[in-house]
């Protein structure tokens, strides 16, 4: 047959088409069929070895020749040799026949030579290059047993060859000596295919050579999606050469091994090497041992649309040569690539790292430019030498480990999204608009990054130099530049987990050999009482140091007097980066009321060094309330004094209790780096193994957390660095891990996980997840599955192809793919999948599966085979598209909600979409588009036009979004959210004035909706947009709920609110992802901010809605204590991540449980990150605006900052009322003494409330 196939040129896929016209192609096809029809089968007729030239060895009798088709197929396990006699004189013999087929058996072809005889040539003459009817096929059937051909023939020729042709076949060609030449040349077909639909193996040993010499001759490994192709070229002199492309993994699995000096060359004008060509393909290339060499005269693409992996061992060489000799890693969207170089990689053209990792300690030479683009994990990492003649642009990350480092002939440019790490050396000029951190990534060590050239950090806040101080003995990160250093941007310094700062510690962080110009635009130095930073030598010698706090002696002349007060007044209001000389008396980098109180306390004295413990200091200031109340003169002055000091005291209490929000309790679950492991927050995988990254966590009803984690350290590589972790039972542990370290899939020796999805966690602490497999028996035909530990150990619930567990729909019907599962609280799953095998086509391969009945079975299936939609004999499912989760929801009782497209030829129109539930073996229609119904019940002629994904709760209530059509509906009022929580299908929210609307100002209506989430009480939460009076792009988005039966706005962009409650003129600008909702009607979501003081470092956070009030949980830029113990380890939040889109009873991953416990992932400046929980406070009583359980002066301050939190009359009516039990902590004697001083004057009620506040916090 003549077919089209994909090739890649000019950065996009094109179609490789026949050069002939359709008529000529048809004639060729007719000729081909004619040739095949004339081919006479000749079968080897004996289980014994013998001569090819002996007529009796063949059935029918006679030596094959001419148009004969030769078959070697004696049966599984039978082995024999067929010899070809030589000749003394010329011409040497030629054994020519049309075609050769090798079935189950092992046949060895060899020359039979006596003294002085020369070898002949075995020539397979069939001219066909098409996949059907070509000359040499090894493994042309799916009969049991391996089809093996061994050859030591001096000369073997064929026009085209396939090893492992049909699905289920198993073919092997062992070239142990001699030459095998493939002569075909076609722009359409691939002349040598190893693993077409079956399992193909090619081994080239013993100085053997296989040459594909046609001008357009290609070699493909793993041609079709089910194909598995493996090629090994081993030994000096052993060689594989292609004039055309070499593709390792076209659609299936391809593997190429070069060992002990083996050579592979793609030498022609089109000599590209593609590793992982099309989506779904995987290609692996190992270039091992000294002398082994891989050469491409075109492009080397590792991950074109699929997955590509290349490993270059020590002493091995990969050359990418020619005018188009470029290297691509992860070339097109969706591709992944990985290159590990321990030998030498030479690229004559450019190197473009778009999505993937290039690492190793070998030599990489690039003749042109190199670019590491912003992408999914795009990263250079190496302890070897990287030589780049042109420019190197970093949009992803580059880690330089070795002393030889990176040499750049042009400019090394770190873009705004780029990261440059390492303790190695760079030769060339560096410009930084992103992040430069002179340390390695693993274990957060410190180091020195050396640049033999100039370093420029332009005047832009995007460029940051980040350093870590681990010890006072000069153990700190440092940047050494041999040339000029031009500074701008920012400097960030962090303390290592084990460092205990001391006065007098100094750190040489910058060194330059040329001229230093400019200055950092901001300094982010860690705050540590009672010391402050001296940066006076930063631009002189590159040294910063820690010195005692001078206290209120801000001009540092040794005395505290009026001159210092003048400086404090002048600097009052500075909120960040304030130095001591600007009025910062307490070392917190701002100038505020606390600095004035320090000056007042120290007036007339000398510089202060010691700072009291928090409780003592707080109560000392509290005592000052009474003292000032009796010493400042008239009543108004005394009242003002008490108010000022009380306000300062409250602020100081907040400062000493961290940045945690009042009423919110935090806990650390996991933390990256060696620091996390030392705090008991590591992966518990042995010494030296730490977390290095995290996915989005999920939580269950018991407060247990599960998450996807990345590890690094001792014994960890890219094959075993991913895992699923939980703290079920109170201890953090691994449930599943990639690689042979395990825990693995329990599918036999050598079969391991190669990737794992984000896990779904149920109430029993069990997880379910999707994973790909690798290892023996795991190839492109059965390399993924759905797994769970619901039975106490990891079991396979479903797996691709013949390996099973399968769909239980016939003898030869298997899964070809499936989505990640939903998982309920009794350990049952549901997912959508596709089928392959006997009788399966595109018209019946979509299926919804579940094991709710105890075994895996179809709940609904496309086509006539069913199970169908239960809507009459002519109605069938067409497919189950439209839901991003495949299946929308699964509740604890096993009821499934899903969307299905329906075909019914008895109706007009014949196609429609439905929302269905399935329970106890019965499928029920909830809503349906078109005229068929059930419809929206909104008036004559109004029907559903489109239906979105659906959600479900434990009671079996369903909610969904969609669009209306007909009956006067227009695009301005057609978007809706529906639910049947009241027993009948009813509209919850609708676009336009018809409503139900958002219950905001008159004329403000909904404009559109995202899919809703549904809780146990039948309440909904969703994101929506607004239109109408006063609405513009700054205030048109919101989070809404139907809690209590009424639609309310939980949060809204713009000044109209509800807003984030984090400061005046700070508003939401957008919301990221869908909200999460629990049974109490509490919601949580990620919000983006805009307004006064908001920038890229603090513009995002997580908020919860409690009792109608928004509570900030965490925000970028906050200091967050990651230490779960009594000590503090404060880190600055750089990003927040939350799992949304769940109501808690839908089988999805959720981040908020019904007890109000929220889990989330944080990243911190400096590169660390972790998994944490926060207990969302209980709904407040009237006037308890800070949600701390009572009504006191702090609530008034909260109301004063944001009157939207409630009514002041509630505060006045309930002032002094506790809503939770007060602490009975008894102060120590020193505390009592200070308290007695405090009680000597001032307003007792205010002081009593402050003391209660202190007792609760300490």
Automatic annotation (TrEMBL):
Ice-binding protein C-terminal domain boundaries: 1225-1248
GO biological process: polysaccharide catabolic process
Single Gene Ontology MF annotation: hydrolase activity, hydrolyzing O-glycosyl compounds
PROSITE patterns: EF_HAND_1 (PS00018)
InterPro entries in the cross-refs: Dockerin_1_rpt, Dockerin_dom_sf, DUF7453, EF_Hand_1_Ca_BS, Ice-binding_C, T5SS_PEPC_rpt
Keyword line: Membrane, Transmembrane, Transmembrane helix
Listed transmembrane segments: 616-633, 645-664
This protein's name: PEP-CTERM motif protein
The organism of origin for this protein: Bythopirellula polymerisocia
